[in-house]
Structures are given as structure tokens and as C-alpha cells.
Design a protein that fits this description.
The chain has 138 residues and is mainly α. The chain has four helices and no strands. The mean pLDDT is 89.
Length: 138
């Protein structure tokens, strides 16, 4: 039961950290598209990475206690690399919503965030922020 409650706690804290990262992501996206005139797919990539760096900092500080990688630089690299899967989902959903359904970019971003949240949590939790498997008892 303690393990289940720990996962629920992590998921909740990851949700809060993701909300902060999403605020950065959306702010950067809005600035780049509305003020700087950057193409929405380029802007969404830049904003996604910006949010990813914020999410990494919050995740290691408040969410995940177990760590598989000793080097923080390497850990951030893996964290962002796993986020590439989320970025592909993010870009595909935004593209589809904008081009096929003529949705506003920010509305498309919110839909995309829903798709990427769970994927990124599961990947990061089980591949990066979990205890390394120990030797199997025979």
C-alpha cells in the first residue's frame, strides 16, 4: 500500500510541476507566435523545451526521490530525450488541430498537453526516476 500511495503522491506532484512548466511553455509559445512572429511549429518546439527545463528542475527538487543517473548533466539530457517522445506527440496534435480542425494554436496546445502529460510521466518515472534494478535472488 505504501508503494501505491508513493506513486499517487508522485503523480500529483508531477501534475503540479507540469502545470508550472505548461505555464512557461504557453507563455513562451504565445510570445513567440504573437509578438515575435515565429512559425507556430518552431515556436511550439522552443516553448516545449523551455517548459521541459522548468519541469526537470521541479521534478528533481520536489517530485522524484529515486535517481538512476549520478551525473545531473546526463540526467537532464535523458530527461529531455524522453521528452522528445512527448514533443513528437505535442507537435503532431498541434499540427492536426490547427490544420485539420482550424483550432487556435493555444487551444491546440492545451489538447496536446493532455496527450503528453501521462506519456511523459510514465516514461520518466520508470526509465529515469526509479531505483536501479538490483540483482535477482535465485
Amino acid at each position: 500500500m505504501a508503494g501505491f500511495l508513493k506513486r499517487i503522491r508522485e503523480f500529483g506532484f508531477y501534475g503540479a510541476a507540469s502545470a508550472c512548466a505548461l505555464a512557461v511553455d504557453i507563455s513562451v509559445l504565445q510570445f513567440l507566435t504573437a509578438v515575435a512572429g515565429v512559425h507556430y511549429l518552431v515556436a511550439s518546439t522552443i516553448s516545449f523545451v523551455s517548459g521541459g527545463v522548468v519541469l526537470y528542475a521541479l521534478s528533481v527538487k520536489f517530485v522524484f526521490k529515486a535517481r538512476r543517473v549520478d551525473s545531473r548533466t546526463l540526467e537532464l539530457s535523458f530527461f529531455l530525450a524522453l521528452g522528445l517522445i512527448g514533443l513528437v506527440i505535442n507537435s503532431a496534435v498541434i499540427y492536426l488541430a490547427v490544420m485539420a480542425w482550424h483550432a487556435p494554436v493555444l487551444a491546440a496546445k492545451l489538447v496536446a498537453a493532455g496527450f503528453t502529460f501521462s506519456t511523459n510521466f510514465v516514461l520518466r518515472r520508470f526509465l529515469l526516476f526509479s531505483p536501479a534494478p538490483g540483482p535477482q535472488a535465485t
